[in-house]
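Can you give me the bound-state structure? Components:
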Amino acid sequence: MMELLDPIVLTQFAVGGILAGALYALLACGLNLVFGVMKVINLAHAELMLLGSFLTWLLFTTFEIHPLVALPFIMVVLFFFGYGLQRVLIERIVGTTELSSLMVTYGLAIIMMNLGLLIFSSDFKAVPALQGAWFLWDEIIISIPRGVAGIVALLVTLSVYLFLEKARIGKAIRAVAEHADVALICGIDVVKIRMITFGLSAAMAGAAGVMLSMIYSFSPETGPDFILKCFAIIIIGGMGNFAGAFFGGLLLGVVEAFTAGFISTQWAEGVAYMLLVIILLVRPTGLRGKAHA
Amino acid sequence: MSGNNSKLLKIRALDVSYGSVQVLFGIDLDVTPGEIVSIIGPNGAGKSTVIKAVIGIAPAQRGSIHFKGREITRQPAHEIPALGIGYVPQGRIVFAEMTVTENLEMGAFLLKDGKRVRDAVDRVFSEFPRLHERRKQNAGRLSGGEQQMLAIGRALMLDPELVILDEPSLGLSPKYVDIIFEKLMGLKEQGRTLLMVEQNAARALSVSDHAYALELGKNRFSDTGQALLNNTDVRKMYLGGA
Ligand SMILES: Nc1ncnc2c1ncn2[C@@H]1O[C@H](COP(=O)(O)OP(=O)(O)OP(=O)(O)O)[C@@H](O)[C@H]1O
Ligand SMILES: [Mg+2]
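Here's the bound-state model for the whole set.
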């Protein structure tokens, strides 16, 4: 037990946790973006991520394209996939009950998962494009794939955040999230903004999928674990709140890393839900949620 | 004055239903350039629905709406601002989690040129110095009166000919009611045309060139503001007294 309290070990856990949490943050921010703008919980979000993972795997194994080179291309593909999906499917459930949006996106998740099983089988895949480790101050070890994945995830999330804060379209997305009716009479084509929003969310999921493929093995059935954790994160961080999902994701990564280090990796898998219960007991609206959201 | 082209806005025989419930029955309404026109009536009379039909967020089943001689009856709402119509929603709805400046920018969303947007923001700030003072704050932190100014400022961003306001003085302190009515007179002096819905019927009639009194989704009275103010029936039914 004593060596666990060594500052080096604690820093090791913290750094590992933040890097892993960055991936959760990227995924959860995308999920929360769609929820914030159209009040739809996209249960197929993790399947969009896996679409990114499988595209990475295909490009890597057939054309030897490095995942980091494939990243922008995959994000563009996922953007247009999401954009089209919003147009033909999701737009129909905007403004309906939350139950019908859950059923439609759950159906979408099942279809995507089964298509994945048909095409790729249930075998696990991996994309071992990066290897090795960095050493910080000679003592803290960061595996290069995890380090790169975490940093890229942070950069993508930050870019989307800046886009929402500063860009003309980004501001319009925030306006639609608050009052679609008023945005409409400001001349904002709300339907188109929702397509862009879903595209952006899918591109974020795709980027998460590229990063995932470099650090974990995955199969078409990997989705449910991730979507449940993302759920926990956005509830912890506050539904619809971008910054909340970001910090919620990092928090989960760190708590998982410490749980794995101090207790066991089995416990780490369940800690998201314990964290959820604890935070909701203390603050029923989530860390950054509003009292009457 | 009776020629078609002398009307900025012309509504004829307008029917609107929400689902199977019809709320407007054959509404006629004219707005002449440069005038202030008010719609008064009790709660639920359909006042908001008339202007929502004009700006395309309530569905017109029958009848027609013309703006500057051009039919806009079923024009999508997001195409309305480009025509020269600004709208201030009931309940002074602002984007609470966006700054004052960002709220104004949304009013000029159609302008893609950042320079022109900034010029428009500056023009509104010069008209509403109070908004300039609070430009970096989130709109949710403003007082009710300030939010109403912001909602008006946002509607002015594209320099509209016609400004449509839904209950601009509702829920404001008497001081802000005065300020808002002064602003409305100022807009008229700038040559803008105003169509407004007001609960404060006496106040609205006193500044209006024309007014329409609705009852249960139908036209009940229409005349000059002054004539309606002196009409005993109107006084009894809409002004709560003799
Ligand atoms: N979106 C809607 N769906 C269904 N019914 C509606 C909707 N909006 C308004 N109504 C109904 O239509 C009728 C007219 O409403 P409207 O808002 O136009 O009245 P109003 O004269 O503006 O009233 P208020 O003074 O309360 O603002 C009311 O009976 C109202 O309940
Ligand atoms: Mg109303």
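A couple of observations. Residues 2-238 of chain B form a domain with the Rossmann fold fold (CATH 3.40.50.300). Chain B touches chain A through 24 residues (CB under 8 Å).
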